[in-house]
## 1
Amino acid sequence: MPVRALRWAFLGLLCAGAVSAAERPATPAPAPLPAAAAAPAEPADSYPVATDAALTGDDTRTRFVVALSRKIEVHAFTLADPYRVVLDVPQVTFRLPPSAGDSGRGLVKAFRFGLVMQGGSRLVLDVAKPVRIDEVSVTDAAAGAPARLILDLVPTDRESYLRKIAIDDKLVHAAPPRRAEPPADGGIPLVALDPGHGGIDTGTKAPNGEQEKDIVLDFAQRLRERIEKGGKYRVMMTRTDDTYVPLAERVRMARNAGASLFVSIHADSLPRKEGDAQGATVYTLSEKASDPEAEQLAEQENRSDVIAGVDLKTEPDDVAGILIDLAQRETKTFSMQFAQRVLTDMKSVTRLHRNPLKSAGFRVLRAPDVPSVLVELGYVSNKQDLKSLLSDTWRDRTADAIAQAIGGYFATHVAGPRTGAN
Ligand code: ZN
């Protein structure tokens, strides 16, 4: 199921940012390429490798060049609010310096790169102002020189920028209809575990380079084992590898599979200038944030789609329209009861934030009919928390506590799967 869902998600991403005729390559990516005579020898099953990425020029013309082991296809398009240029390519192995993309030059403020699905990678450039893609091409490797992806950007005005996107949008094809998943089997409740971030979206980073996306994936896998151990509950994961999944897609996956509970796993950080904070926090959904810090965190977590180059305007938020109804009210109550249970069980094994139960407008908690919480395990910016987050013992102990809370929650609620499709 996840594979198909991801595939649709990615097709959705591609459709959301269709390429204009001028920018569309002659053949659609990721079609297999004929072996270029001059390309370095590579095993047939390996991915092309990006070995360098550089920005040159100034804010009248900025060139972005990526050195590659062989020629690949590229789809380029732009997104507004914030202004971004997105390059979709077949799966690439990135061997770039760790700091690549952290700083910009000319029209480009920064860039990111990574996997968005099996078989597909993406580069996202944050641009300082509206730009026009003057050229995008990939040259062959030749005479010992690598293949090169070249992107030339020139400034334009906002009106032209938006008009261009509107024209591109006309080429968008409707996403294929979703097939309903089979109903949850055997009456065994299904728990959706959602490790935050992934692929191109690394989440927060610890001073020692540890990334949130890796910490939370490992934690979620440990939690999964514990939940499934007794045979009383089933688990579905929104991701099981280092792949990016859009926020709304995570919600859709859980609802389509008939999940009875949704647990999103994250780790927080605080910029040094804002002091120090530590401990775990559990969040539920609210339109109005419980405090300014919670609001800021939700904004930061909701940026996941911006980071990955998703067009927020066209990303279907199919749950927004049905937010306010009775089911929602019941879901809210259940979410709150579950959140309190998680905190009670976590308290005995780990440090909690001084104000550990909060709420804000997290996009990933918006399923109207699946009780949902987001657990921030701790702060990677805090020395003690980071030590815990990286410790196997701590991860096991804390996963045990959350699994116990899940058992306790189901024991006091009707433990059947949700009835009725979405
Ligand atoms: Zn996060």
## 2
Amino acid sequence: MSTSSLLVDNIGELVTNGVGEGPLGIHRDAAVLVEEGRVAWVGPSAHTPAADRRVDAGGAAVLPGFVDSHAHLVFAGDRAAEFGARMAGQPYTGGGIRTTVGATRAATDDELRATVRRLRGEALRQGTTTMEIKSGYGLTVADEARSLRIAAEASGETTFLGAHVVPAEYADRPDDYVGLVCGPMLAAAAPYAKWVDVFCERGAFDVDQARAILASGQAAGLGVRIHANQLGPGLGVQLGVELGAASVDHCTHLSDADVAALVGTAQSDGSGTRTVATLLPGAEFSTRSPYPDARRLLDAGVTVALATDCNPGSSYTSSMPFCVALAVREMRMTPAEAVWAATAGGARALRRDDIGVLTPGARADLVVLDAPSYLHLAYRPGVPLIRQVMRNGVPQ
Ligand code: NIG
Ligand code: FE
């Protein structure tokens, strides 16, 4: 962390997600003073305080670093052939997860570490300053514990997903596997995990199994998140709400009752819903599925986040700008809604108030775009628009 002060000056358009113009709290012709890794001051470029160092943004847009609240980075191998088959008409079922489990179990710690580092580096270069990382491709006590140990080397936001699928060796006794997850696996994983997650879906874990696993995780001190309603309708979203989940993720197939349950978590201070709907458009892109209806959720008042779901099966992208562009083009989100969801929304999905915003006291995690406005993230899809990234005020 930097101990000296740093002024990011000559910002044409500063997205604060705080007080300012429009839903993104924009300040024009602005500057940001960073001290001790935190935002110390935000104000007009014409009246800047003194600082030890200065970065000239050259009139470009500056926004909070992206907060990717859903990623599966601890794995080995890839599933490019499965992707190729899908693009030729095969459906996505999640059946390939076991292929990745086999490769992950066979990998060394250093191989897994190298993959995490490579994908985390990719994401950072695309503006992601916080990235949640899940286990879920080990599915033995030892392999889940080592997956989370390796994840924790790269992120403070780690999630135990021992209940990703039932591994082949438990195929004829799934309840024994649920017992393993709730007992010894959770005990081995919990020291490295902040969250517990379950893939609640036909072919993975049903709502009763998911409730048992999430409740065990909660009892061990972990926060709840859930993969829900991805491949078809189900009770996962409502279970997440029942358990006070920070986020219900995917939300591709929602009933009116699911939306009503989310709306029911609205906070009395008007700051949105306590349970966030995290939408993962990279998964719909890569599985050639219909996109979730973001407009329906937003119009109902549900807080929406965007994340990559980076994993070798359903969404092998680490790019938050790509997800922003997809959300705008395919999910009827405005560019402002998508940028908020990819920054402040992700922070809310992780129950963090120190990231996703550029207001005094927040962590100085920011990106300088190679563009004059946040609009360009959706307007110029696929173009590398991230000129500079800072974490804790330190240029990366
Ligand atoms: O979030 N749906 C469950 N898990 C991942 C996919 C994992 C895989 O296909 O390897 C997801 O999409
Ligand atoms: Fe996922």
